[in-house]
Amino acid sequence: MNRLGVYLAGAVLVALVLAALAPHLFTGQDPLAVDSGGTLRPPSAEHLLGTDENGRDVLARIVYGTRTSLLLGFGAIAVALVFGGLLGLAAGLGNRVVENVIMRLSDVGLAFPELLLALVVITVAGGGTANAMLAIGVANIPSYARLVRAQTLAVRRSSYVEAAYALGLTAPRVILRHVLPNAVKPVLVLATIGVGTALVAGSALSFLGLGTPPPEPEWGSMLSTARNFISRAWWYGLFPGAAITLTVISVTVVGRALRLRSEGRTS
Fold first, then answer.
1. Between the CA of residue 85 and those of 106, 122, 148, 165, what are the distances in Å?
2. pLDDT, position 1
3. So what's the pLDDT on residue 164?
4. For 5-9, which contacts have Cβ atoms below 8 Å and span 24 or more sequence positions?
């Protein structure tokens, strides 16, 4: 893989993390400040990316919306990893009945598109950032349960696990010291790529009005509002959409690089 592309993607992710942790470093504008006399102004020296229908600075809303958007992506994958990992370990280490029950339930979940499953969960749980993150995470649990199960079965049959049992180590100690780290490590690398998909799903839920409620800044909700002004304010939807696209590409590039590195390949 092109090293320059990986470095650029990594630099973008570092900038995004900084924007999420310290947004004031990137803009001095208040993302919630309303200016009725400066609505839908094009990019200028005062407002580098223009203003929205309420006169709020688009750059400030994108920068301050970074935290919420990243939270939706990384938080959802964390939920899927924790619960999917536990189910995958149970399926890989349990008896045939436990394995069949978990895998059949996973098959049912995988039969539906992830966004559709997320919509079902958020319909029951209600809207909001936390519920959107939970809904996307639940929708991804079946995928990670299958991945962890496959890795657990492979590790369970390995020679070093058999040697650990032969040395007299107890089952819980073998699972914690040998099975769990080696089963989850490859899945963590793949999960990096999944963050981009989860981020897009989070933006989609906000676009539909089921994610972060206004006036809190979030890229998907900004796109949802911007579609009403697309003929009058091209900048309003362009820059939040570019932020989503650039973030997903950067996460995917870094995730692929980590996967190739874990496999001992460079391209």
1. 12, 22, 6, 23
2. 58
3. 84
4. 5/253, 6/253, 6/254, 6/257, 8/250, 9/249, 9/250, 9/251, 9/253, 9/254, 9/257
CB 250 within 8 A of CB 257: no
Intervals of the chain under pLDDT 70: 1, 264-267
Percent of the chain with pLDDT over 90: 65
Cα–Cα dist 130/71, whole Å: 9
- 8 A C-beta contact, residue 59 and residue 27: yes
